[in-house]
Amino acid sequence: xxxxxxxxxxxxxxxxxxxxxxxxxxxxxxxxxxxxxxxxxxxxxxxxxxxxxxxxxxxxxxxxxxxxxxxxxxxxxxxxxxxxxxxxxxxxxxxxxxxxxxxxxxxxxxxxxxxxxxxxxxxxxxxxxxxxxxxxxxxxxxxxxxxxxxxxxxxxxxxxxxxxxxxxxxxxxxxxxxxxxxxxxxxxxxxx
Amino acid sequence: xxxxxxxxxxxxxxxxxxxxxxxxxxxxxxxxxxxxxxxxxxxxxxxxxxxxxxxxxxxxxxxxxxxxxxxxxxxxxxxxxxxxxxxxxxxxxxxxxxxxxxxxxxxxxxxxxxxxxxxxxxxxxxxxxxxxxxxxxxxxxxxxxxxxxxxxxxxxxxxxxxxxxxxxxxxxxxxxxxxxxxxxxxxxxxxx
Lengths: 192, 192
Ligand SMILES: Nc1nc2c(ncn2[C@@H]2O[C@H](COP(=O)(O)OP(=O)(O)O)[C@@H](OP(=O)(O)OP(=O)(O)O)[C@H]2O)c(=O)[nH]1
Ligand SMILES: Nc1nc2c(ncn2[C@@H]2O[C@H](COP(=O)(O)OP(=O)(O)O)[C@@H](OP(=O)(O)OP(=O)(O)O)[C@H]2O)c(=O)[nH]1
Hints:
Two copies of one chain form a homodimer. Chain A has helices at residues 2-11, 23-27, 32-45, 62-72, 131-142, 161-167, and strands spanning 13-14, 20-21, 29-30, 53-57, 76-79, 91-98, 103-110, 119-127, 146-156, 172-180, 187-188. Chain A is α/β, with parallel strands linked by helices and 192 residues long. The first copy, chain A, has a six-stranded mixed β-sheet with strand order 5-4-8-9-10-11, sandwiched between helices. In chain A, strands 1-2 form a two-stranded antiparallel sheet. In chain A, strand 9, helix 6 (161-167) and strand 10 form a beta-alpha-beta unit. Chain A is globular. The mean pLDDT of chain A is 97. Strand 3 (29-30) of chain A pairs antiparallel with strand 5 (76-79) of chain B, so a sheet runs across the interface. The complex binds guanosine-5',3'-tetraphosphate (G4P) (2 copies). One guanosine-5',3'-tetraphosphate (G4P) sits between chains B (19-22, 27, 57-61, 98-101, 125-126, 128-129, 131-132, 156) and A (84-86). One guanosine-5',3'-tetraphosphate sits between chains B (19-22, 27, 57-61, 98-101, 125-126, 128-129, 131-132, 156) and A (84-86).
């Protein structure tokens, strides 16, 4: 997605060989017009997949997911990393391991909002080692929902997540796939 | 806002005299079309306020804020309750007290995204005792930004937050103001 790649090149900051900071438009400040473009792009790529619902994870996944849900006209459910005032029981939960923190965290959704009747698009802002996406896949398997595919805004193609998820047969659509960050610059993968 | 009030009446669950659950369209599952309507409503109510930016708080504030930002064509910044991989220094922070948990939590934004040049609309999903909004007001005062006003999706008018914020002279726009939950039903305040 060219307008996204341009934004990454002009506003992204390469913090290390493995971390790209895009706080100015995706992870802290959000560019709503760009989010709407992202929503339209995902809706286009997943047209005909009969999606009934989108599943994402708080917090950075919410804006891209809601714009995609707006274009596809489907509800969006965001999994929580902590229980909330109203999310307390009848949950589907999964463990998500953090390589950086070397600890597992539980993500949950209410059983009320995803059922075996649903065909779900999983979405997230970043795909790195894939733990968050595998957690959401686990949740959808518990709910016996059909998984339409996975929509990712920025994939770090040099990390394992994308490869592992595709090897399991899931359809992954990535809007910007980064081949490397290792010279302080962003290098995108060549698109086929 | 009638379509929102209808949604609250048909899908909201009164959990107690003080808590309304709206997980099916605002706090866990999100209705993107309703969020777009909410965005247009806030944009209409704050037209002519010269807003340059919206400030909200993760997670439930994000969807309404991003839709409002889309209609007003301004960026949206969400304050974080915990540091993240890329939000670590040069922060404005404020304490937000929780009456339920009887503890304070720190919320933060990067100094990069709000300046004294900004005119900011504060937004949140619920207004109860107002601690989250006062935290965001504190942050904006540190940044020396002008505060255009506060946009709230659901206000519990029987709690103190709305009164305290208005008494300080801030312009508050609420889309659904609840007079009481105390008979197991939602009773809205009469609109002037
Ligand atoms: N900016 C940025 N973020 C990255 C990058 N790689 C991973 N992340 C984000 O970091 C968080 C993952 O951290 P951990 O759970 O500690 O996982 P990890 O060490 O195994 O990667 C996730 O944030 P999250 O759950 O999405 O948090 P939130 O932003 O939704 O609150 C993920 O999206 C990167 O290169 N740049
Ligand atoms: N559903 C619902 N939520 C209410 C109600 N009253 C307050 N809240 C939400 O509860 C959270 C506040 O909890 P505390 O910080 O413990 O504050 P409190 O005890 O002083 O009210 C906030 O969630 P938050 O920060 O917005 O969390 P998040 O949803 O963004 O993650 C607030 O929006 C209510 O009647 N119904």
